[in-house]
Amino acid sequence: MLIRRRFLTRTLGGAGAFSAAMALPGCAEPAGAGSVMALRIDTASPGPVIAPAFLGFSYEKSAISKPLFAASNADLIRMFRALGRGVFRIGGNSVDKTSWEKDGPGGQAAFVARPDIDRLAGFIRATGWTIIYAVNMGSSSPEVAADEVAYAVRAFGPDLLGLEIGNEPDVYRHNGLRPASYTYAQFQGEWQEFASAIRARSPGVGLTGPASAFDIKGYTLPFAADHGAQIAQLTQHYYRADGKKASSTVDLLLTRDGRLPGMLADMARACASAGIKGGFRLAEANSYYNGGAPNVSNSFGGALWLLDYLAALAEGGAAGVNLHGGGNWTGYTPIADNGRVATEARPEYAAMLLFARLAGGRVLASSLPAAGMALTSLAVAQPGGEVMVLLVNRERGRAARISLPGRGCVLTRLVAPSPDTPSGVTLGGAPVTPDGRWSAPGEALQAGPGGLVVELPAASAALAVLRG
After folding, report:
1. What structural domains does the chain harbor?
2. Of 399, 413, 428, 311, which Cα lies nearest the Cα of 363?
3. Strand, helix or coil at 300?
4. Cα–Cα dist 161/185, whole Å
5. Does this model's pTM top 0.85?
6. How far apart are CA 324 and CA 335, in angstroms?
7. Tens of pLDDT, residues 74-85
């Protein structure tokens, strides 16, 4: 199998191309891995830029009634800031079940009041992130939503990246918010009523949408065509499968989703056609929906899935992604919490720390003859000229030997005892502590007689910063 990037515009080996050596004398080959695989990078074929705020989190609207997101929560703020710039999204199913209680005391489940928004705004300012804030369309009215937005606009100020109206309208007819006969045409008419009311009160607010759960062709693409002139960014959700099904295993996470490239290409074309300047964002995503698969979504396999997924989004030109989370059970969440403070940095968070180093760079055309192995590679050039390569081995039992161009590199590895474990994860040889602290110098490698070769164990990942 040859892993080749979709935006490749010229034959590798032409102007601007360079290749790594194909052999490393004296090193035994991993069982079944075949010869050393050479990653080829074409610096003359640049692809999409990975936005500085590519990474983000998504939390339920109900979470802001708790004291978790406050300017005084130093540990959680540190964990956000460690990822660089980012986008925080408040949304989820609880949006359409949360009422605006303007003069309420705050801190009440199923209600949002001014103190809740003020506390969240202080947290966002402390992180240096921006926010996508969602309001209730499922069980509220345009006038009430407009009043909430008007207050949110004042509270968040320039930190408000966008406003989301409702959550997952394509499943309204399945979750009791609308009759079974509910259609896209009815949704987009309702959305327009809310948008008009909101803009009348807050003329400059940027809108995003439609925040569909899955129906890209029936909701997201028509919405881009119908309302592209009104929105700053097209949003879509993504999960690999249903967390309640027995088939939602670690092994499925380690298998690439063949639908994803086409979905991303469809959204990219829709944004270009509609002139949506902010492009598209996967504003809610994670491994398995329904909160994840217990003892699967919180495993190290979930971190490897995430790196492969992030690489696909970067190649596909997405503006970014918001990993849904919250709570402290055995499903998904990059950061576990008890409603007041963060309690654990999960494997997905370690994967995000690794990927965050690629933000701001431009994807380069590359190819890797993977010899039938489940490998992921992503080459990225930083503005200063530094080239980084992300490598992910999604094989359970086979190591890989990959030759890279250059005289040497600094390598940061992400490893764990097993893809099935939620513990024992190290990044660069060190764990990420429960308060989000992490520091490791990286592993310096020099090219030998056969070139620069990285030994990538089974079920592991690494980021190489190349030197000359």
Report:
1. 2-49+361-407+447-467 (2.60.40.1180), 55-356 (3.20.20.80)
2. 311
3. helix
4. 27
5. yes
6. 10
7. 999 999 999 999
